[in-house]
Amino acid sequence: MSKYDNALEIAPGVYWVGFYDKNAGFHCNPYLLVDGDEAVLFDAGTKPHYEIIMRKIMEVVNPINITHIVLHHQDPDLCAAVPDMERLCSPDLKIVSSWRAGVLIAYYGIKSEFYYVDRNNYQLKLKSGRTLKFIPTPFCHCPGSIVTFDEKTGVLFSSDLFGAFSFNWDIEAGPYYMEAMKAFHEPYMASKEILRRSIERIQKYPVKIIAPQHGSVLKGDKVAEAMSILKELDCGDEFIPWQEV
Amino acid sequence: MDAYRNLIEILIKRELGILGKERVESILKELDIKFDFETQRVISYDGNGKEVLQQLGEKILDVGGEIALIGARVTIFLNAGRENLELPPVFS
Ligand SMILES: [Fe+2]
Ligand SMILES: [Fe+2]
Q1: Alpha-helix runs per DSSP H in chain A
Q2: Rounded distance, CA A124 to CA A58, Å?
Q3: Annotated domain spans of chain B
Q4: How many residue contacts between A and B have a Cβ separation below 8 Å?
Q5: CA B74, B76, B80, B81: dihedral to nearest 10 degrees?
Q6: A235–chain B Cβ distance below 8 A for any pair
């Protein structure tokens, strides 16, 4: 029995509902935000882990309370579980994404209606009045990539940004996390300039906690440290040693 | 130790993040590379640095697979280029 067998609260009302495999070098982290009788799921997860994720969601809320699933881009590690999940969520469930990502997300066979952030002033107001702000992070790593900032808790749901490759995984980032984070970004982000522009956009928000879709949660001084490292990171096309063919 | 010390050090630091301290410690022990975890500096290794780097790369592949080495490739290439050092085959 490990603490990772259950949902974990990473900020008030914000839960990690992912899977844990001690032999995996790569973890996917869906998060659940509970706001009164409404819940929002971020980067829902993979098909193979659907049952684990759903069990953890059910520890926290009845899935019928999930009114929104935010999909920060179109990758299968965050979208593939949605067709199974949506059957248990609110009948009014909305899939929240950028229009650019939504065009591709639709191909998972998702039945729910889309809420395009770029057609809604890059924000979503929940019933309580709580506002989620969406920040465009184009080409980090997809053209329509976005991240979400929750004003109430200061949590940034950062999707692939701030993620890491880590075999020694823990929910909270440890002393060697920055190296693991660089390892993930160097071969994965489009270019240094593109990454820098997205980080500068994010830095305008009072982020207290970073909850990435891979790797571990960043808190305290690690938030600013991670941002300044990524802003200067030599990454992407101009630095990847492509083999000429 | 030789000109490859810096690259070996960069790789070890990177793998502390990817593989974690326990796995890295056991790799270093096997290859007889002495590393100070406090200062994050290589203290010593025996033999030719390029060969040591090859052995280290092979061990990393054994322990973590491709994912563990991919996470270090960009920085190793970049630093080898800056220092004008030829990389061993495990990085090609
Ligand atoms: Fe992705
Ligand atoms: Fe991802």
Answers
A1: 50-60, 76-79, 82-85, 99-105, 177-185, 192-202, 221-231
A2: 24
A3: 5-91
A4: 73
A5: 10
A6: yes
* Domain extent for A139: 3-231
Q: How many CB atoms lie within 10 A of CB A196?
A: 16
What is the pLDDT averaged over residues A172-191?
A: 97
Q: How far apart are CA A16 and CA A32, in angstroms?
A: 6
The whole-number pLDDT of residue A25 equals 81
**Confidence at residue A3, expressed as pLDDT on a 0 to 100 scale:** 87
A151 pLDDT exceeds 80? yes
Distance CA B42, CA B80 (A): 17
Could you tell me the pTM of the whole model?
Answer: 0.96
Interatomic CA distance for residues B71 and A12, integer angstroms: 33
Tokens of A241: 């040693």
What is the pLDDT averaged over residues B78-92? 94
Instruction: Collect all residues of chain B within an 8 Å Cβ-Cβ radius of residue A239.
Output: 74, 77-78
Encode pLDDT of A83-111 as tens digits.
999 999 999 999 999 999 999 999 999 99
Partner-chain contact A168 B23, CB within 8 Å: yes
Between the CA of A138 and the centroid of ligand 1 the distance, in Å, is: 12
**pLDDT at res. A79:** 98
| Count of domains observed in chain A | 1
Q: Of A159, A160, A70, A65, which is closest to residue A115 (Cα–Cα)?
A: A70
Read off the pLDDT of residues A9-34 as tens digits, 9 standing for 90 and up: 999 999 999 998 877 888 999 999 99
Are A164 and B78 inside 8 Å of each other by CB? no
**DSSP 8-state assignment for residue A243:** P
Instruction: Please say if the pLDDT value at position A243 is more than 70.
Output: no
User: For residue A65, what is the enclosing H or E element?
Assistant: none
Give the residue from chain A lying closest to B78, CA to CA: A239
* Residue A84's CATH number: 3.60.15.10
